[in-house]
Write a structure and sequence with these properties.
Layout lengths: L8 E2 L8 E13 L2 E12 L7 E4 L4 E7 L2 E2 L4 E2 L3 E4 L5 E10 L9 E5 L2 E5 L19 E10 L5 E4 L2 E9 L2 E12 L6 E4 L2 E8 L5 E8 L8 H18 L7 E7 L6 E2 L4 E5 L12 H16 L7 E3 L5 H19 L2 H21 L10 E2 L8 H18 L1 H15 L2 E3 L1 H12 L8 H4 L5 E9 L4 E9 L14 E8 L26 E3 L2 E3 L5 E7 L3 E6 L7 E4 L8 E4 L3 H10 L3 H24 L8 H15 L5 H7 L5 H6 L6 H30 L9 H19 L5 H10 L3 H11 L5 H14 L3 H13 L5 H8 L10 H14 L1 H4 L5 H16 L1 H7 L11 H15 L6 H11 L1
Parallel strand pairs: 2-12, 18-19, 19-21, 22-24, 25-33
Antiparallel strand pairs: 1-23, 2-3, 3-9, 4-8, 5-6, 5-9, 7-8, 10-11, 11-16, 12-15, 13-16, 14-15, 17-18, 20-21, 25-26, 26-31, 27-30, 27-32, 28-29, 29-30
Helix pairs in contact: 1-2, 2-3, 3-4, 3-5, 4-5, 5-6, 6-7, 9-10, 10-14, 11-12, 11-14, 12-15, 14-15, 15-17, 16-17, 18-19, 19-20, 19-21, 23-24, 23-25, 24-26, 25-26
The structure holds (3S)-3,7-diaminoheptanoic acid and zinc ion.
Zinc ion (ZN) binds next to helix 3.
Length: 898
């Protein structure tokens, strides 16, 4: 048990820095076993009094301090800071420190991965490299000299442009990098090691040529082309969509195997997890390809949203992350299928962010307190943050939104600003009043919206009453009503959207949400023949009246998921069956099918819980048949149909329950899959066959859609009577790409028998040299919802290929198990909890960030059946009782138990 309580940092305590930095010169000399850092920093006073200079520094060996050229001992130092009493108005410090990257297992600051040196400074890693004001509102110009051994470190990289390199004798060499644009130290980066690179170039809109390079370990260079193409597409998209041009001569990406998250946007030297760079069809799935493209774009987009305009303090994290996620989502939508991307993003939000927003760690997208900032790189700050930007885009429309972002970049380039500053630009340039909208930044919790429609045949009017509540969350018992954009369409009996007279107050004069829309006196027509209206819900209850509605419509509400809320309606199952087929909004067509499935499974779970036997509703089975017909049509959007034919995930079904029993949920979902597969076996097989065209591999969207649909069919068949194990085995053997191979492997993972063992043994042998593929091998086994998984994990964690020091491997085993496999994780005897708890305890001192991440699945302990609750609580208490508990783990466990 920790005897102290780590300090809580509060937003309201923010104070501007006492000293600013004019520039800094770093001299970093790398030797095996020790690295010497000399920081020469020019400070200027930024206050009126005579305050001391307080620098952050942790895990550093201080060698010497000099001020204005003279060595001094006039300072105090503790384990977190170095303090120099009022040094003057302008002065230069030279501070020498020694660090040991070889021993750094937390993977924060300067550390080693696969024999190479690399850095991760966001959020507060720079303070483990040298003493410095480690806060994002201190922006300065960095010049970095890196020196290392020529043999072990032939490549020496840092931010900015290369201005000099050369030999220093003794088998050593150096490189000097200069970044002329001021940045906070969290964007500092250094890489030194033995790497190869691929190279390309991009000509910017003003005609400058940028040298693009991707550095990887030797042997991986043939897996980088997709990342390079994605980078060029991102650069072009940002010029076209946001008018943003890249400013430096070089843009480097370095891929490393040991990385706590996906990637990092250090100015001109992005450092990536190999998982988000390397992609070839034989080793990466279609989903991996899309993720690589999306994350390359995300980090590149940070160049403007994050780097050139950065955050004043870490409470403002969503300023850069929410905005950059929205940008990367839109990029992916433009590069691929907009409708499918929206579905995938909403599924992710619901699966992972909604529970966070309903649990003990719920926080607004701009939190107001934290113990460890690394714990706030959350689904809420990122994904909900992106939804909040998306709503602003919806409220302003394309043109005004673009003008507002132009103003934002113009006003704040080179500065560290707040979420309020961003909102102010949105308001100033558009004239749209966002004062109430601001609540999205400060109120946590997912709003619940209820919609009730009523048609008055005599008056030919349609009344839609929308009401909202925002649930209490920790520290926020009472909430105010939010400003919620609700996109609505009225679908007539012939399946076409009605073109009616909308309520006068409803629609901002010139708005537009979808890119391919034309405006007609406030109506939005999307490219699929639809007519939508934007209702702005601002009160706790409001009625919107449409006139000249000739026939009784079915309302299609929250089209495109226009706000991150939970929607309840009084629509009948028949209404949803109608929308599932006719809605002009692709998202709501998909959504209607999901709602039907959820409603039915909810009823089945009720039945089981009251001792009855669950039966799949014949009406649901019939409507599923309609979707199969659509999927079988020659012009089907197969990627979309793959989503439509998939039942809601276990996590989403669980959210509908007051008390969660994972076994019942799993059994009911299985039952439905079984009955669907039994009834439609031949149709499903036919779709499988028609998608299984054995041509040469292509990664275009149409081919990827075919693979997605085919693999949904395979999974359905495997859940039916007489599962076609040999078909799965054959698909595994004959696959010419990882998507098909892994899909077959994942269904076989859920069987017990010789075929399963054979394919897993083969897969390991075949891909032993590809760590990212071996991650799949671990995670598929850990995710299999079969009883033998629990024993298997015990063996896997002692497998020679497993290591607690590699975050990808840890995630592939423990996170896959605890997050993707609720049935085994929540095994009644508590073994699942023990497995996770032991891993967290082992990681707590080695890598606190990863340990804290693994706590996610335990956070919702209060929602489970009483026996499970008790065991989960005991697991959390066992963690809390550990000595040397890191602030990361302490914060989550203590808040979760509160
Ligand atoms: N900004 C980084 C995340 C840093 C996480 C620090 N614990 C990656 C990104 O969002 O692009
Ligand atoms: Zn980001």
């Amino acid at each position: 048990m920790r005897t102290d309580t780590p300090k809580t940092i509060l937003l309201k305590d923010y104070q501007p820095p006492k000293y600013k930095v004019a520039d800094v010169h770093l001299d970093i000399r790398i030797f095996a076993g020790k690295t010497l850092v000399t920081a020469t920093t020019r400070f200027t006073k930024n206050h009126d009094g005579a305050e001391p200079l307080v620098l952050n520094g942790e895990r550093l060996k201080l060698v010497s301090v000099a001020i204005n050229g003279a060595a001094t001992t006039n300072y105090t130092v503790d384990d977190k800071t170095l303090t120099i009493p009022h040094p003057g108005n302008e002065f230069t410090t030279v501070i020498e420190t020694e660090i040991c990257p070889e021993e750094n297992t937390a993977l924060e600051g300067l550390y080693m991965s696969g024999g190479n040196y690399c850095t991760q400074c966001e959020a507060e890693g720079f303070r483990t490299i040298t003493y410095f004001p480690d806060r994002p509102d201190v922006m300065t110009i960095f010049t970095t000299r890196v020196e290392g051994d020529k043999k072990t470190c032939p490549v020496l990289l840092s931010n900015g442009n290369l201005i000099e390199d050369g030999d220093c004798g003794d088998g050593r060499h150096y490189a000097i990098w200069h970044d002329p644009f001021p940045k906070p130290c969290y964007l500092f980066a250094l890489v030194a090691g033995d790497l190869v690179h691929i190279r390309d170039s991009f000509t910017t809109m003003s005609g400058r040529i940028v040298d693009l390079r991707i550095y990887v370990r030797a042997g991986d260079e043939n897996q980088c082309d997709w990342a390079m193409e994605s980078l060029k597409r991102s650069m072009e998209w940002d010029e076209k969509t946001y008018g943003r041009e890249y400013q430096l001569d070089r843009f480097n990406i370095v891929a490393v195997s040991d990385f706590n998250m996906g990637a990092m946007e250090n100015t001109s030297l992005n450092i990536f997890n190999t998982a988000l760079v390397l992609a070839r069809p034989e080793t990466a799935t279609d989903m991996d390809f899309e993720r690589v493209e999306g994350v390359i774009a995300h980090e590149y987009f940070h160049n403007w949203t994050g780097n050139r305009v950065t955050c004043r303090d870490w409470f403002q994290l969503s300023l850069k992350e929410g905005l950059t996620v929205f940008r990367d989502q839109e990029f992916t939508a433009d590069m691929n299928s907009r409708g499918v991307k929206r579905i995938d993003d909403v599924v992710r939000l619901r699966n992972m962010q909604f529970p966070e927003d309903a649990g003990p760690m719920a926080h607004p997208i701009r939190p107001d307190n934290y113990i460890e900032i690394n714990n706030f790189y959350t689904l809420t700050v990122y994904e909900k943050g992106a939804e909040v930007i998306r709503m602003q885009h919806t409220l302003l429309g394309d043109d005004k939104y673009r003008k507002a972002t132009d103003l934002y970049f113009d006003r704040y380039d080179g500065m560290a600003v707040t979420c309020d500053d961003f909102l102010q630009c949105m308001q100033d340039s558009s004239g749209v009043d966002l004062s109430q909208f601001k609540l999205w930044y400060s109120q946590a919790g997912t709003p619940e919206v209820t919609a009730e429609g009523h048609y008055d045949a005599a008056a030919k009017t349609y009344h839609l009453t929308l009401s909202q509540t925002v649930p209490p969350t920790p520290g926020q018992p009472d909430k105010k009503p939010m400003h919620i954009p609700v996109m609505v369409g009225l679908v007539g009996p012939n399946g076409h959207d009605l073109d009616v007279t909308p309520p006068p107050s409803v629609i901002p004069a010139k708005a537009g949400i979808h890119t391919n829309q034309t405006m007609d006196s406030g109506l939005r027509r999307n490219d699929e023949k639809g007519v939508s209206y934007l209702l702005e819900l601002k009160d706790s209850k409001q009625t919107f009246t449409f006139k000249n509605v000739a026939v009784k419509p079915v309302p299609s509400i929250l089209r495109g998921f226009s706000a991150p809320v939970k929607l309840h309606t009084n629509l009948s199952d028949d209404d949803y069956r109608f929308l599932m087929v006719h809605d002009s909004d692709g998202f709501n067509r998909w959504e209607s099918g999901q709602i039907l499935a959820l409603r039915m499974m909810g009823r089945m779970i009720d039945t089981v819980e009251s001792g009855g036997a669950a039966v799949t509703d014949p009406a649901f089975i019939d409507s599923y048949g309609l979707m199969l017909d659509q999927a079988n049509a020659s012009n089907a959007d197969r990627a979309l149909m793959a989503r439509a034919l998939s039942l809601p995930d276990l996590a989403i079904i669980a959210q509908q329950r007051k008390i969660v029993d994972p076994d019942t949920i799993f059994t009911v979902r299985r039952r439905v899959l079984h009955d669907l597969a039994a009834r439609y076996r031949d149709q499903i097989q036919a779709i499988y066959d028609s998608c299984n065209t054995p041509t040469t591999y292509s990664n275009d969207a149409e081919s990827a859609g075919r693979r997605a649909l085919k693999n949904v069919c395979l999974r359905l068949l495997m859940n039916g009577p007489n599962p076609p194990v040999s078909l799965a085995r054959q698909q595994y053997e004959s696959a010419n790409n990882m998507t098909d191979r892994v899909a077959a492997l994942s269904v076989l993972a859920e069987t017990d028998g010789a075929d399963r063992d054979a394919v897993f043994a083969d897969f390991f042998k075949r891909f032993e040299q590809y760590p990212l593929v071996i991650d799949k091998w671990f995670s598929l086994q850990a995710s299999a919802p079969i009883p033998s998984t629990l024993d298997r994990i015990a063996t896997l964690k002692d497998h020679p290929a497993f290591s607690l020091l590699n975050p990808n491997r840890v995630r592939s085993l423990f996170a896959a198990f605890a997050m993707n496999n609720p049935v085994c994780f929540h095994a009644k005897d508590g073994r699942g909890y023990d497995i996770l708890t032991n891993a967290i305890i082992a990681l707590n001192t080695k890598n606190p960030q990863i340990a804290a991440r693994l706590l996610g699945p335990l956070r919702e302990w209060r929602r489970y059946t009483p026996d499970r609750q008790a065991k989960m609580k005991a697991a959390l208490e066992r963690i809390l009782a550990q000595e040397n508990l890191s602030p990361d783990v302490f914060e989550i466990v203590s808040k979760t138990l509160k």
